[in-house]
Design brief:
CATH topology of chain B: MetI-like fold
Number of strands of chain A: 12
Oligomer: heterodimer
Number of helices of chain B: 12
Shape of chain B: globular
Radius of gyration of chain A: 22 Å
Helix content of chain B: over 70%
CATH superfamily of chain B: MetI-like
Order of helices and strands of chain B: HHEEHHHHHHHHHH
Number of strands of chain B: 2
Structural class of chain B: mainly alpha
Distance between the termini of chain B: 38 Å
Structural class of chain A: alpha/beta
Chain lengths: 281, 280
């Protein structure tokens, strides 16, 4: 028994040695790369920027780009502190952020989502406010089945929440949520698993998941369908720019990346994430 | 002689590092939460209207109660089940079944917590929702936590019971004790310290568990009125908001970390007291 165990232990030690070696090997070329760019910020923008960065890296060998998601506020904070070269921010800059410069790479809307089996297809601004503040508790009040509504809200600090509150002129303390979620993916999974739920997420993320068979539906808001074309022509009201922000004059590499991210060369990547390219606006 | 000195030196250094890490963590938590601890009165964490850090309301008590309720609920389910499993393996199961069952429990212990969370989110929560909406609730949190700490309690209790000296059982049999008399009169008292230690470890794990609870408990900051109401635990609060928090908001999250740590320290102090009491 003891011999078997010690044999196992030796195997484990060997294995971890091999693993450590692999890690060293895989990081070795990176440390040899001369140029490095760090982007942090919005978790909505991060997947798109990761794709853009991958294409950029393949065009410019020797460049390494780090993309880290952590929320728009983190993006702004990191750029100001110089921790990141470029910040990702999924909203327009506020007046007290005029020390930064923003480059819009795409547009995104925020849509209310419900379970695919829910017969409700559209809600007015007033109905949404009533539901989220707990004045309307059952779906029957807005043309649905007689079941209790499950309100899904976002955690504090997310820009999706900020934009939602701002548009509906609410304070977060007025909302009576039943479930609080973190990122878009968790929100979509939560609504997909609950017939009575209503939540709100990035249209890009929701559209991406519904095409992959997630049983959720995007609701029309005040009669405007949450579609790519309605974002393009400005008919959908809950709209936001996806920005890359910098704090000072960018260096060559950062400038190159900003130009590349706004160029037609990445338009297919923007569309693949169900965002709206900005030059088509 | 020389090698003994060397060994003692190495062991001392190792022990010092372990103790130092613990102190460093405590120091770091205090350092990061210091701005709000000095600036705000501590009572604000108890008397504020609710938890809305961006509106400067920092009440941590609903989350403290959520953390405690979820952990106690899970312990209430997992302790009897775990004890029953351990007793079954040691005293009742035929050898081959005991081995198989033991392996199964070990496997359960090895499943990463995020897998439990994912299962809870996609299976358990919709199930509870059919029964009593909204599904994501204290109950879902308790059930997922139970699954996670059950193997821990079973394995530690099993080890403690298996370590009871064979001659005690032989003596008990010679005295003509029934099987249950032997278990309650000999095995359990002899294994008590080990079993208690296992339960304390499990409780600490339940208090600190983050991802699985974050995915199923609903994360609404409130005092639950029933087990179908959603709750947020202190650990889930940190995971949910830390990446997005800055300034005071961030510092208050470190205060919730500090509170969680104090909770675990209190738990281990209670364990120490219990042990002392038992030996005295």
């Amino acid at each position: 028994m003891f011999r078997k165990n010690s044999y196992l232990l030796i195997c484990l030690i060997l294995l971890s040695g091999v693993a450590a070696g692999l890690v060293l090997l895989s990081t070795a070329p990176a440390s040899a790369a001369t140029q490095r760019l760090v982007l942090t910020g919005s978790s909505t923008v991060a997947p798109l920027v990761s794709e853009i960065a991958r294409r950029f890296e393949s065009l410019y060998p020797g460049v390494r780009i780090d993309v880290q998601a952590g929320g728009s506020s983190r993006g702004i904070n990191d750029v100001r502190k110089g921790v990141a070269d470029i910040g990702m921010v999924s909203r327009a800059l506020k007046p007290d952020e005029d020390d930064l410069r923003a480059f819009t790479i795409a547009l995104d809307g925020i849509s209310l989502i419900v379970h695919a089996s829910n017969p409700v297809v559209s809600l007015s601004k007033q109905q949404v406010v009533s539901i989220f503040t707990g004045n309307v508790m059952r779906w029957s009040a807005v043309g649905g089945p007689d079941t209790r509504i499950t309100v899904v809200n976002k955690a504090e600090g997310r820009s999706t929440l900020e934009l939602f509150l701002d548009y509906f002129q609410l304070k977060n303390s007025m909302i009576k949520p039943h479930i609080i979620i973190g990122d878009n993916a968790q929100g979509i999974k939560t609504v997909a698993g609950n017939r009575n739920a209503i939540g709100y997420v990035s249209i890009g993320a929701a559209e991406y998941e519904t095409r992959r068979g997630m049983p959720v539906r995007l609701l029309a808001l005040d009669g405007a369908a949450a579609s790519i074309s309605n974002i393009q022509n400005g008919n959908f009201p809950l709209l936001r720019p996806l920005n890359l922000v910098i704090s000072h004059e960018p260096q060559d590499l950062a400038r190159q990346f900003l130009t590349f991210a706004q160029s037609p060369q990445v338009r297919d990547l923007v569309k693949a994430q169900y965002f709206v390219p900005v030059d088509a606006h | 002689m020389h090698i003994d000195h060397l060994l003692a030196g190495i062991l001392r250094a190792g022990a010092a590092v372990a103790a130092l890490v613990m102190l460093l963590i405590l120091f770091f938590l205090l350092y990061e939460s210091w701005p709000v601890l000095t600036e705000l009165s501590v009572f604000r964490f108890v008397t504020d209207t609710s938890w809305h850090p961006l509106e400067r309301a920092y009440n941590l008590m609903p989350m403290l109660s959520g953390t405690l309720l979820a952990s106690m609920g899970a312990l209430m389910l997992a302790v009897p089940l775990g004890m029953a499993s351990a007793l079954f393996i040691v005293f009742f199961a035929p050898t081959h079944l005991a081995t198989l069952y033991g392996r199964l429990i070990e496997l359960l212990a090895g499943i990463p917590s995020v897998v439990f969370g994912f299962w809870g989110l996609t299976t358990l929560v919709p199930l509870i929702n059919e029964w009593h909406p909204p599904g994501a609730s204290l109950l879902a949190g308790i059930l997922v936590l139970t699954l996670m700490i059950l193997p821990m309690i079973t394995l530690t209790a099993y080890t403690a019971l298996a370590a009871v000296p064979e001659e005690l059982f032989r003596n008990a049999a010679a005295l003509g004790l029934s099987r249950w008399g032997m278990i309650s009169g000999v095995a359990l008292p002899a294994a008590r310290t080990g079993i208690t230690a296992g339960i304390i470890l499990a409780a600490a794990r339940a208090l600190g568990e983050t991802m699985a609870v974050l995915m199923v408990a609903g994360n609404v900051v409130q005092y639950p009125e029933s087990i179908f109401d959603p709750i947020r635990t202190l650990a889930a609060n940190i995971a949910l908001e830390m990446a997005y928090a800055m300034g005071d908001h961030r510092a208050v999250l470190f205060v919730s970390g500090l509170l969680l740590m104090l909770l675990v320290m209190a738990l281990s102090a209670v364990a120490g007291l219990l042990e002392k009491h038992h030996h005295a």
